Amino acid sequence: MAPVVVGSALAWHVGRFDPIAAAICLGFALLVQIGTNFANDYFDFVNGADTEHRVGPRRAVAAGLVAPRVMKGAMVGVFAAAFLLGLTLIHWGGPWLLAVGIVSILSGAAYTGGPWPLGYHGLGDVFVFLFFGLVAVGATFFVQAGRIEADALLIAVPIGLLTANILVVNNYRDVETDSVAGKRTLVVRFGRRFARWQFALSLMLALALSPVLFLRGYSAAVFLPWLLIPLGWRDCVRLRTRTAPADLIALLGDTGRLLVLYAVLLGIGLVLSPRG
Questions:
Q1: Any alpha helices (H) in the chain, and if so which ranges?
Q2: How far apart are CA 105 and CA 148, in angstroms?
Q3: Number of domains within the chain
Q4: Residues 203-248: pLDDT tens digits?
Q5: Is residue 239 a contact partner of residue 230, using CB atoms and an 8 Å limit?
Q6: What range does the domain containing 115 cover?
Q7: Residue 64's CB: how many other CB atoms inside 10 A?
Q8: Would you give the DSSP letter of residue 67?
Q9: pLDDT averaged over the chain?
Q10: pLDDT band, very low/low/confident/very high, at 53 (cuts 50, 70, 90)
Q11: How far is CA 203 from the centre of its chain?
């Protein structure tokens, strides 16, 4: 939801908001997210990353709640639905969006699937930043405004970073089991200290967007995300001091909620700023 919210808010700011296009972008983003989660559930089980030693939330296939072939079929079905819905955006953005949609879906599946799973080689954070940040925000703005602007890419950066922070917490919790399974996430490669710095720096960079936008002519309302500074500090402390799986699962949810709150507050700031 977050990239669609801020991309649409920027479209409103420039006087080009289109509720139908925004709703289709939201539906496509949600379907790709669901399909990616189904793919992770299926492929992590097939690749041996999900075992009885898993410390995270229960996975459906690994827990025996859903047969592997059923999960695989659900993954394909959801990705197919995303593709068909995404086709309608060609009306607004032109045929090049077809390539964007296909690459987004393939990347969702390739995160844990395929001959060279991205998440197993430490590239998960990069692809989350690209597709949930630059691509999702940029494409949402483009299909409504009919053009791409520097500000669209600028506001996409914190969304990508804060989305990647969700992955940081997830991989921080799973570092031991991922290491055994050969899943070489950034936390496995560089350690938990590195992950804590990545998490904190991503938060600081996201908050640094507000003065940048203000200097670019937006109103002081773009400082609304600074209301989240206490929550961000609290989450950094929790990541540093708590290692129990239950604590990190709770932090995982709170990291996602912080992303949503950031997107909403930033979106409000963009909408309240005088139109360019």
A1: 2-13, 19-46, 68-87, 90-93, 96-110, 124-129, 136-145, 150-173, 175-181, 186-190, 192-207, 209-215, 229-241, 245-272
A2: 22
A3: 1
A4: 999 999 999 999 999 999 999 999 999 999 999 999 999 888 899 9
A5: no
A6: 2-272
A7: 7
A8: -
A9: 92
A10: low
A11: 14
